[in-house]
Amino acid sequence: MQFHQNSAEIFVPDGLSEEQALRRTTHMALAAHQDDLEIMAAGPILECFQQKDKWFTGVVLTDGRGSPRDDLYKNYSDEDMRIVRIKEQKKAAIVGEYAAQVLLDYPSKVVKDGSNPHPVEDILALLKVAQPQVVFTHNLADKHDTHVSTALRTIAAIRRLPENLRPKKLYGFEVWRDLDWMMDSDKVSFDLSKHESLQAALLGIFDSQICGGKRYDLATMGRRRANATYFESHGVDVTLGMSYAMDLTPLVMNPGKDVVAYVQDFISRFSQDVTGRLQKFS
Ligand SMILES: [Zn+2]
């Protein structure tokens, strides 16, 4: 496949041809940075792990050049960091047995530029070959600009697919800002009770980010446990780990639907819930 960035690549852990590897995809996740997939998309990664008929393909949009660095990596140049982060992402694809790992290698500013058509065109080309049944990206209430931009480019690409090629579901996962605030009826939850050590292994691969003093590995496993425990205030824990997603499917089933109004509806249901409880018990 030819992408807009000459340095973009498709890594296939088991050595199949790029096209064969992509065509077996059933679950595809698109994220801004190296490590976001492992933080947010453990649900589909585990669902596809060791399955003959389910395959996870990861897509990372940015090049990792602007990554924070410390410790062992303190004096690394932007290009050194790019190489380290690509290497880490490929290691994760091997450990998680992904169908393919796509690295689109864009500078963040290109992904954030809504007038640049290239990221959407690359995603569209990938979707046409892979034809995933389910697609995952960042949720639209995330507080990281590149995450939200990645979600918007993903939605734009799916909207351009012919109706019969569109995935059946599109979900937005939590990274920078969790989705605990959403009404329980709005939450799509993914049970992460199993393969805890594999989840930890996937998160631990990203040493260059963890070394910067950010324990994303511990924080992410902790969030999954907290989600499971705090989901129900009455009754015992039914899962040991859980992640939440915002259902974005209506935005691609109906390409005319307004993205801002759609997200505002989730926020206003939360707002009404808080206000209603305060009024009831005042
Ligand atoms: Zn990120």
Residue-averaged pLDDT, rounded? 95
Overall spatial form: globular
Count of DSSP E strands?
A: 8
The set of bound ligands, ions and cofactors reads: zinc ion
Q: What is the rounded distance between the termini?
A: 62 Å
**Structural class, from helix and strand content?**
alpha/beta
The poorly predicted ranges are none
How is the biggest beta sheet arranged?
8 strands, mixed
Secondary structure tally, helices? 12
Order of helices and strands: EHEHHEHEHHEHEEHHHEHH
Relative strand content: 15-25%
Strands ordered across the widest β-sheet? 1-4-3-2-5-6-8-7
What level of helicity do the residues show?
40-55%
Give an account of the 3D structure.
The chain is an alpha/beta fold. It has twelve helices and eight strands. The chain has helices spanning 18-23, 36-40, 42-48, 78-95, 108-112, 118-130, 145-160, 196-204, 207-210, 216-230, 249-253, 259-280; strands at 9-11, 27-31, 56-62, 100-106, 134-138, 169-173, 187-191, 242-247. It has an eight-stranded mixed β-sheet, with helices on both faces. Helix 6 packs across helix 7 (145-160) and helix 8 runs antiparallel to helix 10 (216-230). The chain is globular. The termini are far apart. The model has no long low-confidence stretch (mean pLDDT 95). Bound molecules: zinc ion (ZN).
Give the helices and strands, then pairings.
Elements: E1 9-11, H1 18-23, E2 27-31, H2 36-40, H3 42-48, E3 56-62, H4 78-95, E4 100-106, H5 108-112, H6 118-130, E5 134-138, H7 145-160, E6 169-173, E7 187-191, H8 196-204, H9 207-210, H10 216-230, E8 242-247, H11 249-253, H12 259-280
Parallel strand pairs: 2-3, 2-5, 3-4, 5-6
Antiparallel strand pairs: 1-4, 6-8, 7-8
The structure holds zinc ion.
